[in-house]
Amino acid sequence: MFEVVAESGEARRGELQLNHGKVETPVFMPCGTYGSVKALTPVQIREVGTQVLLGNTFHLMLRPGPDVISDLGGLHGFMDWDGPILTDSGGYQVFSLRDNVALDDKGVTFRSPVNGDRVRLSPEISMHMQKVLKSDIVMVFDECTPYPATHHEAKSSMLRSVGWAATSKSAYDGEGALFGIVQGSVYDDLRVESLAAVVDIGFDGFAIGGLSVGEDIEEMNAVLSALVPQMPSDHPRYLMGVGTPSDLIRGVVQGIDMFDCVMPTRNARNGHLFTWEGVVRIRNAVHKHDSSPIDPNCGCYTCQHFSRAYLHHLDRCREMLACTLMSIHNLHFYHELMTALRKRISENTLSDFASRLLAQFADANRVNSSA
Predict the structure, then answer these.
(1) Does residue 272 share a domain with residue 142?
(2) Is 106 helix (H, G, I), strand (E, B) or coil?
(3) Are 253 and 278 within one domain?
(4) Count of domains observed in the chain
(5) What are the helix (H) ranges across 235-319?
(6) Among the options 247, 257, 260, 295, which is catalytic?
(7) Based on the domain organization, do 158 and 93 belong to the same domain?
(8) 307: domain range?
């Protein structure tokens, strides 16, 4: 299913074979939480360079529900996407509702954010729903540990996730690859214990969950530095919910293969556009008369056809087209970044390239903080 084809330091370039096609790693996965990447059609999602999408079990279970999706051919048929789909199990969404969740060792009970109904979610229910979705990559049901947490709280949460991982594997009888999730907050000993347990259970890939939930960047990097070298080298490694272009670069350098985050599309809808020279804040008045594209060196549809002035105008008028055009650009940038990283891994020149990019992004963000 997964083959490493090139290495540069700890970084790996790989090929991931899934039911709906091959994925080249390292890869960034846009979030299509409700079966849709906001403001974009499936054709546009493919044209910007997307290889694999992320959908969400929790939200799709609440609406439209498993019966509708099953009747319409699974999530691929429902949303007319013929490429691979990874589905999050719902653990993170439970984390986001934690003040209204009753948690026990077999699952969680909560009030639906849609209509207030009482809802039960467990490893078995999550696995059944992901089978209905016909996911290419299925995530085990886990508990995303809040931050901050004491060592005792983090260990209790981690052990619960390990138990749910075992139940998830026993309950899943679909065709997709099943990934385990490593928890343990910012405690190295708990992360190592969690990793050993999920490796012993046996999965097709291993994800790092419970990061980018409030800890600072130094804490996150410390967890990755301690954990990633101990993860199986012949399985894909997935860092969940991360993040900025700099986060992706640092993750790839440390040996991460897969990433997802809402940042490129959410930031686009808020007028923050990523470029190789830093972030362009299109709402600022300096762009009102600017005839240049977001990035003159970008080959995306938006940069090839529209000026900063036009995007500034659309955004100020709250035109829906602004969200579409700016999301096209940001996703194209993210995919181009991953393409560049894959190329440098194959050439074994990643270290210098990554260092230059990280310094460039840091300098640009300082200079352009109000641009």
Answers:
(1) no
(2) coil
(3) no
(4) 2
(5) 245-254, 263-269, 301-305, 308-316
(6) 260
(7) yes
(8) 268-367
Do 228 and 313 sit in the same domain of this protein? no
Whether residues 256 and 272 share a domain: the answer is: no
Whole-structure pTM over 0.85, yes or no? yes
Tokens describing residue 355: 């260092």
Residue 85 pairs in a beta bridge with 53
Torsion of CA 144, 150, 154, 156, to 10 degrees: -120
User: Which of these is catalytic: 88, 136, 295, 315?
Assistant: 88
Mark whether 88 is an active-site residue: yes
Burial of 110 (0-12, 13-18, 19+ CB in 10 A): buried
Question: For every one of its 371 residues, what pLDDT tens digit does the chain have, with 9 covering 90 and above?
Answer: 899 999 999 999 999 999 999 999 999 999 999 999 999 999 999 999 999 999 999 999 999 999 999 999 999 999 999 999 999 998 888 778 777 889 999 999 998 989 999 999 999 999 999 999 999 999 999 999 999 999 999 999 999 999 999 999 999 999 999 999 999 999 999 999 999 999 999 999 999 999 999 999 999 999 999 999 999 999 999 999 999 999 999 999 999 999 999 999 999 999 999 999 999 999 999 999 999 999 999 999 999 999 999 999 999 999 999 999 999 999 999 999 999 999 999 999 999 999 999 999 887 765 554 34
Q: Check whether residue 241 and residue 274 sit in a common domain.
A: no
- Give the C-alpha separation, 216 to 272, whole Å: 22
What CATH number is given to the structural domain containing 175? 3.20.20.105
Answer with the one of 205, 230, 261 that is the final residue of a domain: 261
> Is 82 designated active site?
no
Residues 214 and 306 in one domain: no
Does 145 share its domain with 171? yes
